[in-house]
Each structure stands twice: as structure tokens, then as C-alpha cells.
């Protein structure tokens, strides 16, 4: 069974963020991949997730890797992608154990995928709510719902930047051969390293950061 985004609670989000940090720190310390313990039953359902590492307090990207499709229990997915975000993101050198004192951990859980032609998808994007997967031939790229909030992008800029992430021209969304999958996401983050975990309200952040300037 695939997990329902709407079934997740704040306590689930806290568990996943703490699990991600514990997985990273144990792997960096010993090279051992932990097995999730005392897992809330719903987090044993299959789920797709990304783990993002950000510098504190400036929140600059330090690593981000995930699965866009649910292929294993959500808790196990978070362990896998947390370790990968810290050690295998090709954009960055691997994170050190000492560095974890200065990074915050975010977990984004993905769901509710719908696929359209990219041109049609543009009309359905909701900033702060939907992420995008662009696919054309062998090319693909994904941007999470929080990305346009961080950069104050509008819908067209968001889909153009996802084209670029896929290694395609920014106007690839105009090509009828380009598909766009829109998905919902929910994101939980540490406010400071090992600090309080909260769920991000991306739509509110977008209004405050981008529309009320």
C-alpha cells in the first residue's frame, strides 16, 4: 500500500527528520546503515521522499537526493536518501560528521502524481503546493515544491527551471513531446541543527517572502 500524504501527522514528520539525521550521523561515524526502529505503522507503507541538507543559519543547499516513486517503505526510503544526500550528491563533496553540527535536515514526502503534456501542466501548477517532474526522451529532472518558494519563481519560471534541471532548453515545456508530472509534497524541517522540527507552510512562505515585498 502507498502512503497517503494527508494521513501524515506532525509526529510522523518529526520521526522522519530525526530518522534522517540519525541515519546520516551513524553512517558517517561507522559506515553502518541503520534499520528504522519503533516505526509508526503508517510509515511502513511505501512512500517517495527526498532528504535535503541546508547550512545553518543561511540555509544554503548542501545536498539533496530522493526517490520520486514509492518503491519501499517510507521509513526505509528516508534512511536510503538521507545517506545519499550526505555522501553521494554529485554537486557537492561528501558531508563530514563534524559538519552535521552546522546543517539542518529536511524531509519531503511526495504523493498524488498526475501527468500532463508540459504545456497543459503549466495551467495546473500551484506554487507552494506542487512539484514538477519533466520528462522528454532520455531526459528527466525534478524540482520539489519548496524550490520556487526559495527563489520567488512564478509558474512559468518554475517549469522552465525544471526543463533546465532535466538538461533541456528552458522552453522545453512548449514542445508537445515533453511530459510534466505534477505532484504534491509535504516538508518537515529542523529550525536549527538538532532543534525543533516543524512542517513548512510553503504557500504562506511564498506570500510572505515573494508577494509582500
Total of domains? 2
Main beta-sheet strand count, sense and barrel state: 7 strands, antiparallel
Q: Whole-number radius of gyration?
A: 17 Å
Question: What is the CATH class of the largest domain?
Answer: Alpha Beta
Structural class: alpha+beta
Number of strands: 7
CATH homologous superfamily label of the largest domain:
Hypothetical protein ph0010, domain 1
Low-confidence stretches: none
**Total number of helices:** 6
Separation of the first and last Cα atoms: 43 Å
Strand content: 25-35%
CATH architecture title of the largest domain:
2-Layer Sandwich
CATH topology term of the largest domain: Glycoprotein, Type 4 Pilin
Helix and strand element order: HEEHEHEEHHEEH
Report on the architecture of this protein:
The longest helix has 21 residues, at 10-30. β4 (130-136) and β5 (139-143) form a beta hairpin. Strands 1, 2, 3, 4, 5, 6 and 7 form a 7-stranded antiparallel sheet that branches. This protein has 2 domains: 5-110 and 186-200, Glycoprotein, Type 4 Pilin (2-Layer Sandwich), CATH 3.30.700.20; 112-182, Hypothetical protein ph0010, domain 2 (Dna Ligase, domain 1). The chain is built from 6 helices and 7 strands. It is α+β, with helices and mostly antiparallel strands and 213 residues long.
Amino acid at each position: 500500500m502507498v502512503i497517503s500524504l494527508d494521513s501524515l501527522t506532525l509526529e510522523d514528520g518529526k520521526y522522519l527528520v530525526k530518522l534522517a539525521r540519525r541515519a546520516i550521523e551513524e553512517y558517517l561515524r561507522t559506515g553502518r546503515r541503520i534499520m528504522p526502529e519503533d516505526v509508526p505503522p503508517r510509515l511502513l507503507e511505501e512512500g517517495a521522499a527526498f532528504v535535503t541538507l541546508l547550512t545553518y543559519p543561511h540555509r544554503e543547499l548542501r545536498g539533496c537526493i530522493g526517490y520520486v516513486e514509492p518503491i519501499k517503505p517510507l521509513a526505509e526510503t528516508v534512511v536510503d536518501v538521507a545517506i545519499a544526500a550526505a555522501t553521494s550528491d554529485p554537486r557537492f563533496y561528501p558531508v563530514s560528521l563534524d559538519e552535521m553540527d552546522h546543517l539542518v535536515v529536511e524531509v519531503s514526502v511526495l504523493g498524488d502524481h498526475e501527468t500532463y503534456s508540459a504545456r497543459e501542466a503549466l495551467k495546473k501548477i500551484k506554487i507552494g503546493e506542487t512539484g514538477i517532474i519533466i520528462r522528454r526522451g532520455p531526459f528527466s529532472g525534478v524540482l520539489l515544491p519548496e524550490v520556487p518558494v526559495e527563489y520567488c519563481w512564478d509558474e512559468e519560471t518554475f517549469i522552465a527551471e525544471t526543463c533546465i534541471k532535466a538538461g533541456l532548453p528552458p522552453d522545453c515545456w512548449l514542445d508537445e513531446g515533453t511530459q510534466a508530472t505534477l505532484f504534491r509534497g509535504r516538508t518537515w524541517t529542523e529550525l536549527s541543527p538538532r532543534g525543533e522540527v516543524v512542517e513548512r507552510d510553503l504557500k504562506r512562505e511564498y506570500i510572505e517572502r515573494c508577494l509582500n515585498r
